[in-house]
Amino acid sequence: MKVLVIRFSSMGDIIYTTPVVRCLKMQLPGAEVHFITKPAFKYIYDNNPYVDKLLLLKPSLSETIAEIKTEGYDHIIDLHNNLRTTIIKLRTGIKSSTYKKQTIRKWLSLKFNLKLVAPTHLVDRYMRAVQFLGVTNDGQPIDYYIKAHHQLADLLPASHQNNYVAFVIGATHFTKRMPNDKIISICRELKHPVVLLGGDDVKANGDEIAAAIGPNIYNACGKTSLDESVFLVSQSATIIGFDTGLTHIAEAFNKPIVSVWGGTVPELLGVQPYMVKDVLVAGIDLYCRPCSKFGLEKCPLGHFKCMKEIPEEPITTFINNRL
């Protein structure tokens, strides 16, 4: 059997396809499992032993369809379910099974603050698309494979190489990020060294936080590649992070995680930490939350209570009790 799994974007959604790919490969003897995604997300499946071939979306859909046709797949597992994947399925004529997005229910839940979507994890929703093959969830965490051999001594000062807290302060949208003063307040109560992680876009935030706290903070934002950042997460004692890709990747290493949610909620998209044994999901109930599925550039009401009013004590106690 030869199977193609499709998910083009985004980081978190692709990460949660890894259990599906693993289960396909492990539970279908002799099956050849391929995966296709956008070139920007190739790194998620680099070194993944359960993928026999990684295909990348080409500049034109016609080129992509031509490549898929030449492979001779028995089945397409469509875990994206959009117009582009619909065209691929129609034009290739390959038998397919498709993940059900529940788009209307999600929209109504967001627009009218209703709970019309069961808090079923995205992995379990994806798994329904492969049930027809007799494939079942193995109950194991997501997969992520670090690409290179790294050394802590090359990435962190000696003061931060043992028993540190990895604090992922980056996120694509403002309403997913905790304000600097809130992060500073939390870090002041942590008993162990803290390594701040994120991209160039939050380097200045990290500098401000480190300047306010002092030597207990090391700002690695903008200094490490994604692979190095993942390595630092894998070597940490505990993790604090927002709704962002690096926090989701951290779930692969089964470390204690505080998952902090502001304007977005995990239940709506089914992206709460998956198969992590020790986790605290931090967020507060507000009439205006969630304000979006994926985050916004500013709080629509101007108060940003969803982040500013998150209780700090449960977060700091959770972390300090595990160090």
Secondary-structure topology with pairs:
Blueprint: E1 2-6, H1 11-15, H2 18-27, E2 32-37, E3 53-56, H3 61-71, E4 75-78, H4 83-92, E5 96-98, H5 103-112, H6 122-127, H7 152-155, E6 165-168, H8 180-188, E7 194-197, H9 203-213, E8 217-219, H10 226-235, E9 238-241, H11 245-250, E10 257-260, H12 266-269, E11 279-282, H13 305-308, H14 313-320
Parallel strand pairs: 1-2, 1-4, 2-3, 4-5, 6-7, 6-9, 7-8, 9-10, 10-11
Helix pairs in contact: 3-4, 8-9
Task: Give your account of this protein's structure.
This protein is an alpha/beta fold. It contains 14 helices and 11 strands. The strands form 2 sheets. It has a 6-stranded parallel β-sheet, sandwiched between helices. It has a 5-stranded parallel β-sheet with strand order 3-2-1-4-5, covered by helices on one side. Helix 8 (180-188) packs parallel to helix 9. The longest helix is centred in the first third of the chain and has 11 residues, at 61-71.
